From TrEMBL:
It comes from the Bacteria. Pfam families: DUF429. InterPro entries: DUF429. This is DUF429 domain-containing protein.
Length: 221
C-alpha cells in the first residue's frame, strides 16, 4: 500500500511516497492531475486548503492554529470561496471584496496559494482519496501532541523534524536525484509529514479537525 504526501513548491508540487517499509521515492509534479491518475496511491494528502468557506474563517484553521502553540501562525486563514473564480486574480481587489462581504481581508501568504488551491479544488471533489493536511499539525501529533520548539526554516527546526520523521519510520535519503535535490529542504520535510498523515488516514488512525463527518474543510493528521 503506497500513500503520498504533497506540498506546493514554486508553482509545482513535491510528493513523497511511503508505505509500510518506509520512504519509497520523491517526485516533482506540475499538476495534481498527474498524481490523481496513479491508482496505486491509497491516500493522497495535500498541504493546501481544500474546501474554501463561504464565510471565513474556517473552523479547521482556527482550531488547528490554537492547538499547535507557537507554530500557530503557520496556519494561514483560507481565502473565501469566491476566490476560486479566476476573475479574482488580483489580491487587492479580492481582499477589498472580502472586506466588503465578510469584514475581513485576505492575507498575502494565503492569496499566494490560490493557484495551488484551485488545482486542489479541481481534483478533490471527484477523488475521495484526497485529504487536506498541515505539516505543523502532523508534526504536532508525531511529537505526542506537543508543539515543536523551532521554526522549520532554522537549523534546529530541520533537525527536529528529520528526527521525528525517522522515529516514525520515514528515513529520508541524504541525497536525491538532480531534480528533487533542488527542492527546498522544508518543502520536502512538509511533504514527508503529509505522507505520514496519509498513512494514518489509510490505517484509520488519523485525527481530523473539526470533528465532523465531511472529508473537506477538515485538517487531518
Amino acid at each position: 500500500m503506497d500513500v503520498i504526501g504533497i506540498d506546493g513548491w514554486k508553482r509545482k508540487w513535491i510528493g513523497v511516497v511511503i508505505n509500510s517499509n518506509g520512504f519509497q521515492e520523491a517526485k516533482i509534479y506540475h499538476d495534481l492531475g498527474d498524481v490523481i491518475v496513479n491508482a496505486t496511491y491509497e491516500v493522497i494528502a495535500i498541504d493546501v486548503p481544500i474546501g474554501l468557506p463561504q464565510r471565513p474563517p474556517r473552523d479547521a484553521d482556527v482550531l488547528v492554529r490554537g492547538m499547535i502553540g507557537a507554530r500557530g501562525p503557520s496556519v494561514f486563514e483560507a481565502p473565501p470561496a469566491f476566490c476560486l473564480d479566476p476573475r479574482w486574480n488580483d489580491r487587492a481587489l479580492a481582499s477589498a471584496e472580502s472586506m466588503k462581504r465578510h469584514g475581513r481581508g485576505i492575507g498575502c501568504q494565503a492569496f499566494a496559494l490560490m493557484d495551488n488551491i484551485r488545482n486542489a479544488d479541481r481534483v478533490s471533489e471527484s477523488d475521495d482519496r484526497v485529504h487536506e493536511v498541515h505539516p505543523e499539525f502532523s508534526f504536532f501529533h508525531m511529537n505526542d501532541q506537543r508543539p515543536l520548539k523551532f521554526t522549520k526554516k532554522s537549523w534546529n527546526g530541520r533537525a527536529e523534524r528529520i528526527a521525528l520523521l525517522g522515529q516514525h519510520g520515514i528515513e529520508l535519503p541524504k541525497m536525491f536525484d538532480a531534480d528533487v535535490g533542488r527542492v527546498a529542504i522544508d518543502d520536502i520535510l512538509d511533504a514527508a509529514s503529509a505522507a505520514w498523515s496519509a498513512a494514518r488516514i489509510a490505517n484509520s488512525k488519523a485525527i481530523a479537525v473539526p470533528d465532523a463527518t465531511q472529508r473537506l474543510q477538515r485538517i487531518w493528521a
